Amino acid sequence: MKMKDRFRFVRQNMGKNKSRIALTVLATAMGCTFLIMIASVAFGLQKSIVEEALHGRKVTQIEISARAVDADRNKHRQVNASDIEALHQPKHVKAVTVAYIAEGQWELEGGYSSQGPISMADMAEEIKTDLPLSEGRLPQAADEAVVGYHFTQDLRDKDGQSYAGSLVGATLTTTFTVYTMESGDKIQPRTEVRPIKIVGILAKPAKEIVHDNSFRTDQALFESSGFLADQSPAEVAVFVTSANKVSGVAKALRAERFLVYSVADELKQIDVVFLIMKIGLVFVGTIAVLIASIGIYNTMTMAVTERAPDIGIMKAIGAHPRTIRSVFLLESFGIGIIGAIIGTAVAYVLSMIINVIVPPIVHASLDSKVPEGFVFSYIPWSLTALSVFISAGVAILSGLRPAARATGIDVLRALRRDL
Amino acid sequence: MIRLERLSHRYQLGAKSKDRSVSVLHDIDLHVREGEIVTLVGRSGSGKSTLLHAACGFIRPSGGKVVIDGQDTASFGEGDWADFRRQRIGVIFQSFQLIPSMTAYENIELPLVLEGTGDAERRERTLQMLERFGLADYADHYPGELSGGQQQRVGIARALALKPRIVMADEPTGSLDSDNERQFLDTLQQLNTEERITFLIITHDEHVASIGHRIVRIEDGRLSEIAAPRPMSGSSSAPEQEASSR
């Protein structure tokens, strides 16, 4: 029997008792919705907490804060230029970024000015970390720079008016100031003034609360002048090719006595907690689907009983037991899959509604604002796929016994309507 | 074509009493040759239906062999029997046994659907059968909307849809009036003559039995009398040698 004829049989059979099938599909849909919704809370919380933990950082980033000077790791020193080669050594290292920080002052034609920190990095390495831009390009020459998304807002004239035009292509007169330790613990400022061309604007931060007024230029600018000669890097980070390689690289760097921190380590702990939570909630949700499966079993058993004479006739004229079984299994699978699709659609709608209505409720009842971007319910595609798989699987399991009963129907008793 | 060798069958009495049984067929030997119509007559409870059910695999006989078209069916499972029946045997029932939720067209098409026949061939064959049995105008009618004679014709058309070489019929005229019975018997004889289809027909009606090349009488599970009112052309063997019951 062809597959399309099996589907035709199933469609005809399901059409014979529409109300019963509809109620069974409804029960399955409710079970599936419950499963998705309850698990979506864990997914939502995890998403919100992970985003909070990342806070603009990259999962593939390993921050290097210092290096131990002895084997016992009791004394540490700042990372210096001679350590950079060692940071490149472990496998799967994509880039090593080293940034020096200076105080900066900027002046633009028209009387606009501002001040803030300047990050002087190895731009060739920075480019490898896939810095996201909202406008322009990354620097290709030593006298070029990219600025943070909000940098333009801070560039104001004497009246306090922000610069309104685009900074890309504009040249800022930039004053760099670093401090050096003179003899007698006296700190002396050292200053250089350079014209720097803005070639790109960084992407808008994910969180509205973050004000990105950074200014990044290439440390090669001062290669010949020795301006940074006695400075230590303020930020050193290793970027790894993918998140699952972070642990291995971090381990290798620790072996080289580097003090390392990666958000992936932090996320690993969070992930373990949420994985346990998600498994538990999916298990609880599956109970709802299992309850719905009783309905499927009941519906299929009634269908077999009602159709016993037809099954007897089909067997008498040569229907293979396998064909009979497959028709009934397809029917229970159909109920499961239709229920799962409806249940999933309802769950997505409910999830959206919850994410819209819960923050005002929390605000009204607790008088505290829900953190920005916080989601209470999040349905990733993996949860949808898992729920559809569970619903369809449970539906097939529910149909196994009725299908076996159908194949075992005695032809003669069925023909005599003696079942 | 159909050979029953020392066929016997016992029915268990009740589900729990394994030691209580009743014997309904006793070492029956019957050979139905290709192109022959054999009618099996007997009173109610004589075992004729049991014999037919064993011959078409609805029950597994307690003893003996059923050999059809040269194939020993002793090792057949339920699935093998289903395939064998569908491809080689057409079965006609007393109470038509049409699926009430299917139209005449769909009922006739059913064996072709089960066989997985291609759409075009299936449609052509079904329409051909509807035309041949005078049912073209009733293709979309459900069994409940057809007369007894029309329903039986749908049953015959369904049995012949896959062009079987053997047709087994269990009291095929039991639910028909005399006009429809006559039409049915004419159709059977025509099919036998034109297509050399072998028929094994169970009946208690002597008139129906008379269309057989041989009439085999069964009493208390034993073949008791063989007559040849209408010997098959080209037949040389004596009826007594073709069927016996020890």
What characteristics describe this protein?
heterodimer, A: 419 residues, alpha+beta, 11 helices, B: 246 residues, alpha/beta, 6-stranded mixed sheet, 5-stranded antiparallel sheet, 8 helices, globular
User: N-to-C terminal Cα separation of chain B, in Å?
Assistant: 21 Å
Percent helix of chain A, as a range, is 40-55%
Shape field of chain B: globular
Largest sheet, strands/sense/barrel of chain B: 6 strands, mixed
Number of helices of chain A: 11
CA-based gyration radius of chain B: 18 Å
Structure classification of chain A: alpha+beta
Spell out the helices and strands of chain B N to C.
EEEHEEHEHHHEHEHEEHE
First-to-last CA distance of chain A? 26 Å
Please identify the structural class of chain B as seen in this structure.
Answer: alpha/beta
Oligomer: heterodimer
Per-chain topology:
The complex is a heterodimer of chains A (419) and B (246).
Chain A: H1 3-16, H2 18-54, E1 61-68, E2 76-77, H3 84-88, E3 93-108, E4 112-121, H4 123-128, E5 133-136, E6 144-147, H5 151-154, E7 171-182, E8 186-202, E9 215-218, E10 235-240, H6 246-255, E11 258-262, H7 263-306, H8 308-316, H9 321-366, H10 381-407, H11 411-415
Parallel strand pairs in A: 4-9, 6-8
Antiparallel strand pairs in A: 1-2, 1-10, 1-11, 3-4, 3-7, 3-10, 5-8, 6-9, 7-8
Chain B: E1 2-12, E2 21-32, E3 37-41, H1 48-55, E4 63-68, E5 71-72, H2 78-88, E6 89-92, H3 104-115, H4 119-132, H5 148-160, E7 166-170, H6 178-195, E8 198-203, H7 206-209, E9 214-219, E10 222-227, H8 239-242, E11 243-245
Parallel strand pairs in B: 3-8, 3-9, 6-7, 7-8
Antiparallel strand pairs in B: 1-2, 1-4, 2-11, 4-5, 9-10
